[in-house]
Amino acid sequence: MRQLPRVGKSLGFTIVEIMTVVIIASLLVVAALPGYENFIRNNEAFVTASRLAAAMRLAKAEAIKHGIPVTVCPISSSFNPTSDFNEGVEQWPCQATTTWDAWKVFKDPNFNATEDFSDGWPIIQYYGDVQPGTVVSNISGPVTFDPMGFANINPSSTRSGWTWSSSYSSGEWDWSYSYTSSYTGSYYRLFSIVPSGCSGQNAKALEITQNGVISIFNIDCYGN
User: Fold this and answer.
1) Is the model's pTM score more than 0.85?
2) How does residue 206 score in pLDDT terms, banded at 50, 70 and 90?
3) How would CATH label the architecture of 15-80+90-219?
């Protein structure tokens, strides 16, 4: 007797099975999207806060190392690191603003938040890769660290104790310090780092005390 050939099983997928997989995958993506967006915003706030903290710590370390004040201040958001620098004049001066869309670190021997080009190029670092409006300070203007690592967190109030003389001694600036020097105004500087579209606890805050202590912690996004 002649044997009929066997019919093989299909190894493919039916259109119903494919559509089922697509629908399930779409639902998983939609469910995961808010968490992914929160992760991106949280990471953006963390990176920006870390870079601002790094600039502050660099200024503090350089002030102690060189024995002169070093300032960090907000500059114009139009700062363009690819343009040509004029090393005889500052193209991006400090601004009296609470919004830090860009900033710079520079040697400030006169303790006046203004660069002195008489002794070479004073700029230590520029930074300008910040989403506009993300970083806001509770006090306008710069932060200056003195040679002891203390911070002048409010440019409109009494500095933290140092007095300066223009005379040189053994190639170093002549400084004197009074521990009884008064200090007025706020005793801390607070920066809020709130990315656009932030919600929940995805924002960061950077705090600088008069003693030069720098810390980062989580804050609420204030419904923004």
Assistant:
1) no
2) very high
3) 3-Layer(bab) Sandwich (3.55)
